[in-house]
Each structure stands twice: as structure tokens, then as C-alpha cells.
């Protein structure tokens, strides 16, 4: 029978940037480039109604802000950060420098050097996403980044105390209470009071994503984030209430977050739809979650799990949750995703908040060609080479000469010729000609 929808999305996910957003972002970037702090303050006043004496928080301000956070929240931040640090340290340990002697006297090597300065953007907007502080700052610090600047916006004119605490405990070297395009531009370009960074990581709204896109090249970025996505693969034994709960947990991120169920059981699919309707009736974030579920939610019935996995690979969702009898089968069957969540005892929200893996993940089918934020994103894998044997240098020089002339690169060829001449006594007319003419 093939795949069949029993709930179809009312809208198609928009993957293009609104021209108005693009133009606004371009104008802000150009203004910050020319006018620095003055422009940053102007846009902060305009967009966030926020214009403190200094956007950078002093040590005493940070400590005062932390004192307003409950002891339980502080303890939870530290426990979540312990998990994230442990996983990041394991990632760093998996990345090795090496040197190999490919032939006698010829050494090739690889070093993984951390970026010097990084910016971490921690969104505010609808929610104080303090978990993004863990994901961006901690990961950078474990990678060895010397200096991390954290930017997070005020929320409705208020300081997000828990977010500031999370950024501090994650190891931020400087914390700025600044958001939006103006924060991205300030970090990327530098101003009188903010030093330019080399790389920016962290999710954000359409303006933040567009700013990162326009500034890519001036600085490196983690990825271009779109709306949060979740896809669940469920078999006939999956608990429909769990499926509905987990779909809506991600739909509440915003009004345009795709939530998709692919199941081998029509009964599970229809029960999930019924439960979702009931849950939304008293869900505090129903306005957002309900809009996403109505406009972008899908329920698809397939004939087999193999068909489910293949269809999920086409969707290439940010989060893929496996609610089947053999969830680890997905490790072999799935290729395109941001992160996998295996079994009913696991859920996407764990990854979002505290389990230890990173929640900055590819969206809009980018999982086809990249993974999410991890320690390696903050490292530059750089190579080096050294030839210490004269005969080896001469032999490689001969090879270089032939390879270069096959591409009509005469200058490259001559660098190889010179080594072959010096160490193997090869005759090359151009060498003698140049030396003779230069001596006259």
C-alpha cells in the first residue's frame, strides 16, 4: 500500500528567508560596521527597549544576578553541565593529533588547534533558553577555546537570571546582556567595547539566523538553524500517549515546528491524534504547540519499519525518536538526522536540556551533510609536513614536477625541479639558464 497520511500538514515549511528580514539584517550589520557601539545601543533600544550603562556585565553584577537564582536551579544547572562536560570531554579525547612517516624521511602530521575566540549566542525571546549556554560555552571551553563571549537578550525588559548563571558556570569569559542581530554583528565585527570573535555558535530567531548567514566568511558559524523539528518512528506496540506527549513537547518551541509521526500502526497513529487534541486543551504552551501541530503536524502510516526508516531518512529531521521494540536497529538503518533518541525511556527533551549531548542540531534537511555542534566544531584540523631525507625530497620533487606540468603549473613544477636538482643532481635547463643570466 505504501505510505499514507492520516494527518497532513496544512502548511509547507518555509525554507527561504523573508526579503524584509534579510534587508533589515543587512542594514544593522552595515551600521554596526561603521558606527560600532553607537549602532548597537540604538538597535538594542529599538528592538529590546534595553539601554543600560554597559551591556557587559561586571563580575559584581554577575554575582548579584546569580544570588537571585534559587538554590535548586543552581544545582540543576551544575548537574546538567556536568553531563554535558563529561560527554564533550569524551568527544575531545576521541580527536587525536598524529604524525606518520609515509616513506623514509617524509613526515606528515595533523594537529587539532582550538579557535582562539568564540561567541556564544543564547536566545531569549519566548523562553530563557539557559540550556543553550551549556551547549555553546561548555563545549567551546572543553575544546580549548581561550576566550568565549556570551550574549543573551533581556526578556521583556527583564534580566534572565538563570541564563546568566548558566553562562557563568559554563565558563564564559565575558557576558553581555545583548540580543538579536546587533549582538551577532557586534561579536562578528567587533566594537569599541567588544572584541571581534572568530566563530559564533548558538540558535536564534530568523534575524539571528540571517545575521549568521550574512556574516559567514567574516567569522565561522556552527550551522544555520531553522525551526525545531521532531520525527517519531513508532511500531504497533508504542504507547500512543507517550508519542503524543513527545511530539507536542517539541511543537511548543514555536508556531512553525514540524512534528511528524511515522508508524506501522494506523491505530497508534489515530490514537496519537486523539491524545494530542486532549493534551492541548490544558497545556500552558498550547497556543504555540497547537499551532505547530495543526499547521505542520503529520501522521503517516507505512507497511514496515524498513519503509519507516527510509522515509525518515528523506525527512532528515533534527530530532528522530525511535519508539519500537528494537530501537537500536535505527543506528544501522538511519543515516540522515541531527540526533537519535532510542527507546521509550529516552526522549528529545532530555537532549534539549540535560542528558549531555548537544542540542544545537541541523534542521531543514541539513542532517544529510552535517552533524550538530560538538567539540570538533571549535577545533581547526590543520596539517603539516616535513621532508628530512635528501633522496626522498628529490624523488618527490620529480613527482611534483610531472604532476604540475600535467596541469600547466610551471612555477609549481620548478619548485619540484629544484629539489630534484639539489638532491639527485637532475639536470634542468631552466636552472642553469637563470643562474647564468643572474650572474652577468
TrEMBL record:
Pfam families hit by this protein: Histidinol_dh (PF00815)
InterPro entries membership: Ald_DH/histidinol_DH, Histidinol_DH_CS, Histidinol_DH_monofunct, Hstdl_DH
Residues where substrate binds: 228, 250, 253, 319, 352, 407, 412
UniProt key word Oxidoreductase: yes
GO cellular component, one term: cytosol
Binding sites annotated in the UniProt record for NAD(+): 121, 182, 205
Pathway of action: Amino-acid biosynthesis; L-histidine biosynthesis; L-histidine from 5-phospho-alpha-D-ribose 1-diphosphate: step 9/9
Active site, UniProt feature: 318-319
GO biological process: L-histidine biosynthetic process
Molecular function terms, GO-annotated: histidinol dehydrogenase activity; metal ion binding; NAD binding
Cofactor binding annotation: Binds 1 zinc ion per subunit.
UniProt KW keywords: Amino-acid biosynthesis, Histidine biosynthesis, Metal-binding, NAD, Oxidoreductase, Zinc
Top-rank taxon: Eukaryota
UniProt-annotated binding residues for Zn(2+): 250, 253, 352, 412
EC assignment: 1.1.1.23
Keyword Ribonucleoprotein: no
PANTHER family: HISTIDINOL DEHYDROGENASE, HISTIDINOL DEHYDROGENASE HDH
Function summary: Catalyzes the sequential NAD-dependent oxidations of L-histidinol to L-histidinaldehyde and then to L-histidine.
Protein name: Histidinol dehydrogenase
Protein source organism: Pseudomassariella vexata
Amino acid at each position: 500500500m505504501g505510505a499514507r497520511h492520516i494527518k497532513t500538514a496544512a502548511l509547507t515549511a518555509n525554507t527561504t528567508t523573508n526579503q524584509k528580514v534579510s534587508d533589515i539584517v543587512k542594514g544593522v550589520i552595515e551600521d554596526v560596521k561603521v558606527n560600532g557601539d553607537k549602532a548597537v545601543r540604538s538597535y538594542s533600544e529599538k528592538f529590546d527597549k534595553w539601554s543600560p550603562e554597559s551591556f557587559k556585565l561586571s563580575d559584581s553584577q554577575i554575582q548579584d544576578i546569580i544570588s537571585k537564582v534559587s538554590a535548586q536551579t543552581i544545582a540543576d544547572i551544575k548537574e546538567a553541565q556536568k553531563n554535558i562536560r563529561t560527554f564533550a570531554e569524551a568527544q575531545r579525547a576521541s580527536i587525536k593529533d598524529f604524525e606518520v612517516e609515509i616513506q623514509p624521511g617524509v613526515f606528515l602530521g595533523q594537529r587539532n588547534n582550538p579557535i582562539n575566540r568564540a561567541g556564544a549566542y543564547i536566545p531569549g525571546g519566548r523562553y530563557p533558553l539557559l540550556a543553550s549556554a551549556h551547549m555553546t560555552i561548555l563545549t567551546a571551553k572543553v575544546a580549548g577555546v581561550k576566550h568565549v563571549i556570551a550574549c543573551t537578550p533581556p526578556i521583556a525588559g527583564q534580566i534572565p537570571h538563570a541564563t546568566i548563571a548558566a553562562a557563568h558556570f559554563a565558563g564564559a569569559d565575558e557576558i553581555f546582556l545583548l540580543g538579536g542581530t546587533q549582538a551577532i554583528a557586534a561579536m562578528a565585527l567587533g566594537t569599541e567595547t567588544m572584541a571581534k570573535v572568530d566563530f559564533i555558535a548558538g540558535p536564534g530567531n530568523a534575524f539571528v539566523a540571517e545575521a549568521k548567514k550574512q556574516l559567514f566568511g567574516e567569522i565561522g558559524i556552527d550551522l544555520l538553524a531553522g525551526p525545531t523539528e521532531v520525527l517519531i518512528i513508532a511500531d504497533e506496540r508504542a504507547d500512543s500517549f507517550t508519542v503524543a506527549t513527545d511530539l507536542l513537547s517539541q511543537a511548543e518551541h514555536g508556531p512553525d515546528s514540524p512534528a511528524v509521526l511515522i508508524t506501522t500502526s494506523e491505530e497508534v497513529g489515530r490514537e496519537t491524534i486523539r491524545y494530542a487534541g486532549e493534551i492541548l486543551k490544558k497545556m500552558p504552551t498550547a497556543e504555540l504547540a497547537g499551532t505547530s501541530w495543526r499547521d505542520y503536524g503529520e501522521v503517516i502510516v507505512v507497511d514496515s519499519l524498513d519503509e519507516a526508516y527510509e522515509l525518515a531518512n528523506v525527512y532528515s529531521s533534527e530530532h528522530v525518536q525511535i519508539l519500537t521494540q528494537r530501537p537500536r536497529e535505527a543506528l544501522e538503518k538511519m543515516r540522515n538526522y541531527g540526533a537519535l533518541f532510542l527507546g521509550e525511556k529516552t526522549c528529545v527533551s532530555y537532549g534539549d536540556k540535560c542528558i549531555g549531548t548537544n542540542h544545537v542540531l541541523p534542521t531543514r534537511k541539513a542532517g544529510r551533510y552535517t552533524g550538530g555542534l560538538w567539540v570538533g566544531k571549535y577545533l581547526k584540523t590543520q596539517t603539516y609536513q616535513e621532508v628530512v631525507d635528501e633522496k626522498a625530497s628529490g624523488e618527490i620533487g620529480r613527482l611534483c614536477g610531472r604532476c604540475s606540468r600535467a596541469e600547466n603549473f610551471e612555477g609549481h613544477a620548478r619548485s619540484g625541479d629544484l629539489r630534484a636538482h639539489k638532491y639527485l643532481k637532475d639536470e634542468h635547463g631552466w636552472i642553469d639558464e637563470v643562474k647564468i643570466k643572474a650572474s652577468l
